[in-house]
Amino acid sequence: MRKITDPKELQELCLEWRRQGMSIGLVPTMGFFHAGHLSLMDHVHPLCDRMVVTLFVNPTQFGPSEDLNSYPHDLENDARLAEKHGADILFAPEADAMYNPDHATWVQVPELARGLCGRTRPDHFQGVCTVVTKLFMLTQPTLAAFGQKDWQQLAIIRRMVQDLNIPVEIHGRPIVREADGLAMSSRNAYLTEEERACAPGIHAALKAAEKLVLEGECNAETVKNFIRTRITESVPMGRADYIELVTPDGIKPVESISGPVLAAVAVYMGKARLIDNQYIEV
Ligand code: PAF
């Protein structure tokens, strides 16, 4: 595995691979790998001639009071894991190599970015879209994989790729969970022992809501209140940022459930903000 920090070097190598007719799979990450990241690599590796894993804690997707400077990292261990899981390149640039001081170009999908996480993180998805576009331009991937835990991010990237005719296949991959149901996230490292013990209550509330809907409840407000009550009971130190039912592709609020719906939540717990979701196939 080759470690690259220079965007130009990455681009030249990937362009050369594409000229030679090779397919390239991309796994964009912010590092501190857990089984969710590794499952993306294991999915992409057999599908492509070359796999590029990127590790970049992208400053433009963090708000001013967010955790950019404390985001967990362990580059040495990440490099070992990426190599073990088949990466040909680990691209880990510095921020100033990715953004010129006069950077002025932004990619946005405002319609899908307004709700859910966009409400409390107004510039987040603009940062994500911009860096993902840059990573696409640098790596020329034939396919790129993203986790479904960040469902809104995935929906936005799919729409961006469609609208801008970017020639890449987007693969959304299932959420990987701890044995007790907690969705894996690098930010779980922020949880205290007490917070970690009750955090699986978030997934449990979403699963219970799925059951409620599948048993016939179609009033979204009732389902949201049900999730809120469950989370309040089982995750007492949590504070919900949002609890929403939205259309899975358009991320539009749903009032009456008559088709597939996404139940999505974000919960503040101490230093962490945990997100999770449940796709409900009605
Ligand atoms: O999901 C993430 O880790 C990030 O948002 C991504 C896609 C790597 C862009 O920085």
Task: Explain the overall architecture.
Strand 8 (261-269) and strand 9 (272-280) form a beta hairpin. The protein contains eleven helices and nine strands. By secondary structure, the chain is of the alpha/beta class. The strands form two sheets. Strands 1-4-3-2-5-6 form a six-stranded parallel beta sheet, with helices on both faces. A three-stranded antiparallel beta sheet has the order 7-8-9, with helices on one face. The model has no long low-confidence stretch (mean pLDDT 98). The relative contact order is 0.14. It folds into two domains: 2-173, HUPs (Rossmann fold, 3-Layer(aba) Sandwich), CATH 3.40.50; 186-280, Pantoate--beta-alanine Ligase, Chain: A,domain 2 (2-Layer Sandwich), CATH 3.30.1300. 39% of the residues lie in helices and 20% in strands. Helix 7 packs across helix 8 (151-163) and helix 10 (201-214) packs antiparallel against helix 11. The protein has helices at 7-19, 35-44, 75-84, 95-98, 110-113, 117-120, 124-139, 151-163, 193-198, 201-214, 220-234; strands spanning 2-4, 24-29, 50-55, 89-91, 143-147, 169-173, 238-246, 261-269, 272-280. Residues 28-30, 58, 61, 128, 131-132, 150, 153 line the site of pantoate.
